[in-house]
Amino acid sequence: MEKVLEVKDLHVSFTTYGGEVKAVRGVSFDLHKGETLAIVGESGCGKSVTSQSIMRLIPQPPGRITQGTVLFKGKDLTKASEPEMRKIRGADISMIFQDPMTALNPTLTVGDQIMEGIIQHKKVSKAEARKQAVDMLNLVGIPSPTERLKQYPHQFSGGMRQRIVIAMALVCQPEVLIADEPTTALDVTIQAQILNLFKDIQKKTGVSIIIITHDLGVVAQVADRVAVMYAGKIVESGNRREIFYRGEHPYTKGLLNSVPRLDLEDEELVPIIGSPPDLFSPPTGCAFAARCEYAMEVCERLYPMKTRLSEEHHVDCWLQDPRAPKPIKTVISTI
Ligand code: SF4
Ligand code: MG
Question: 1-92+174-278, what's its fold?
Answer without folding.
Answer: Rossmann fold (3.40.50)
